[in-house]
């Protein structure tokens, strides 16, 4: 991959595709999609982890922030592309720049606050000063100590190769040859983000909850599709009255959507016959029906929902994941980033999202729910985190890692339906289709040396039997 700076090729690091024993065949062998078997080294191997930083995170489109977090010139939010810290900042021209947060002198981090507003970024080490678009605009002692030898035009902050947004959600990739964000998201990714926006304009509430769990990031992604664990893992949260597992589960009405490049949505879905009735309702009737149903039992969306999620996707009450690591949860009230911090550590960032016009009472409930379900104080995340860290732990031991993981649920028992608009979905019961899709896609990303190879050799979204 090549990094760009100020429009010029700055450094070529094609040589960092260190495979360290992992060639294409051995990577593809890590997951057997026909048998539903995963090699546990996927969750623990250090060389695979290094390759993930290059081939998945630097190459893919990563969620950066929401428009509402950086409304004005100079507003910034710090995020990561893999382990590379980046500054997402609104430039003088109103465009969003994504800049590697590392000074071109000795590499010091320029911006230390998690978010804020700045006129420029001044390095705390020796005072180099960078504009909001990353240009190096000031160097103490440039003419005296450096004798005019510094070419400032070559020493701007490195910019993400592509930055773009969909419905106010900003993404960035370090790969100049990555497909456009629109094409990358595809139907499934766009349906997932549409889920958040189907009730109108939204904003992120200030205060991102952040915590670290001792688990591989993929275990956390696998789990968001997993509706099998809910009754069992979260029984205690259910008995504490935090939520009602039976009301949200709908074990025999599950809807799965599998999209190109690894995106997926899995979880409860409205039966199509019920959706047909809803399609005939006015917005007023939908609101009335939602109010009269028990909480979460049916997510009846307004008409805008079908525009953003598609005629079949609008039935989803499940969990989308934008590959690799953006989980959209609870029908769009929160999104969670699973940031890799080594094979056995993941930093989770929880963004709470509300409709822009939501009254204070709604916001209060949204914050209460966000704190009590997920995040460091959330009961559900405490249940899940224990299981994720112990599952990761068991991928390290010499004997236990030989056992692999079993992902057989529903394998060979379902079919992908294609609706009249071309949208693909699987109507089924509780299953592991999306988990298998995650690991299959992961091996394809990891085995491909560049975007050209990934484009040519990745699996298309499945049709027929799955
Ligand atoms: S490291 Fe930034 S100015 Fe020296
Ligand atoms: Fe859970």
Describe this structure as you would to a colleague.
The longest helix is centred in the middle third of the chain and has 17 residues, at about 180-195. Strand 3 and strand 4 form a beta hairpin. This protein has about 475 residues and is an alpha+beta fold. It folds into two domains: about 60-165, 3-layer Sandwich (Rieske Iron-sulfur Protein), CATH 2.102.10.10; about 190-465, Alpha-Beta Complex (Naphthalene 1,2-dioxygenase Alpha Subunit, Chain A, domain 1), CATH 3.90.380.10. The radius of gyration is 23 Å and the shape is globular. It is built from 14 helices and 26 strands. The strands form six sheets. Strands 15, 16, 17, 18, 19, 20, 21, 22, 24, 25 and 26 form an eleven-stranded antiparallel sheet that branches. The protein has a four-stranded antiparallel sheet with strand order 8-7-6-9, with no helix packed on it. Fe (ii) ion binds near residues 229, 233, 234, 380 and 384. Fe (ii) ion binds next to helix 12.
């Amino acid at each position: 991959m090549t990094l760009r700076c100020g429009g010029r090729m700055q450094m070529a690091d094609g040589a960092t595709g260190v495979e360290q024993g992992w060639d294409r065949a051995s990577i593809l062998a890590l997951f057997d999609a026909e048998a539903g078997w995963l090699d546990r080294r996927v969750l623990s191997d250090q060389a695979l982890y290094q390759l993930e930083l290059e081939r998945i995170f630097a190459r893919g489109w990563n969620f950066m922030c929401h428009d509402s977090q950086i409304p004005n010139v100079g507003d910034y939010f710090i995020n990561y592309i893999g382990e590379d810290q980046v500054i997402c900042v609104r430039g003088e021209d109103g465009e969003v720049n994504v800049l590697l947060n590392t000074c071109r002198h000795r590499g010091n981090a320029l911006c230390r606050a998690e978010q804020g507003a700045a006129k420029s970024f001044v390095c705390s080490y020796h005072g180099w000063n960078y504009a909001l678009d990353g240009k190096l605009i000031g160097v103490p002692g440039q003419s005296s100590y450096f004798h005019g030898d510094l070419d400032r035009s070559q020493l701007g902050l490195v910019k993400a190769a592509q930055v773009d947004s969909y419905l106010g959600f900003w993404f960035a990739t370090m790969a100049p040859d990555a497909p456009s964000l629109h094409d990358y998201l595809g139907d499934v990714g766009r349906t997932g983000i549409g889920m958040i926006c189907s009730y109108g304009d939204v904003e992120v509430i200030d205060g991102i909850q952040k915590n670290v769990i001792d688990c591989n990031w993929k275990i956390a992604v696998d789990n968001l599709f997993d509706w099998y664990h809910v009754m069992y893992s979260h029984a205690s949260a259910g008995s504490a009255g935090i939520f009602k597992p039976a009301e949200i589960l709908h074990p025999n009405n599950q809807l799965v959507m599998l999209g190109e490049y690894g995106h997926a949505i899995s979880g409860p879905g409205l039966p199509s016959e019920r959706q047909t009735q809803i399609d005939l309702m006015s917005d007023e009737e939908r609101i009335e029906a939602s109010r009269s149903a028990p909480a979460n039992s049916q997510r009846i969306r307004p008409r805008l929902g079908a525009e953003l999620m598609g005629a079949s996707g609008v039935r989803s009450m499940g969990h989308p994941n934008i590959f690799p690591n953006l989980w959209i949860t609870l029908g769009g009230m929160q999104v969670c980033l699973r940031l890799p911090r080594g094979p056995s550590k993941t930093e989770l960032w929880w963004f709470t999202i509300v409709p822009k016009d939501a009254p204070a009472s709604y916001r209060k409930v949204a914050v209460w729910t966000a704190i009590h379900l997920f995040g460091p104080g959330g009961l559900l995340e405490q249940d899940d985190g224990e299981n994720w860290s112990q599952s990761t732990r068991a991928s390290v031991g010499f004997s236990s890692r030989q056992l692999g993981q079993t992902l057989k649920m529903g394998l060979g028992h379902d079919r992908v339906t294609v609706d009249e608009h071309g949208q693909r979905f699987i109507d089924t019961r509780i299953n592991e289709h999306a988990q298998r899709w995650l690991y299959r896609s992961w091996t394809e990303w990891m085995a491909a040396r560049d975007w050209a190879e990934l484009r040519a050799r990745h699996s298309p979204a499945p049709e027929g039997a799955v």
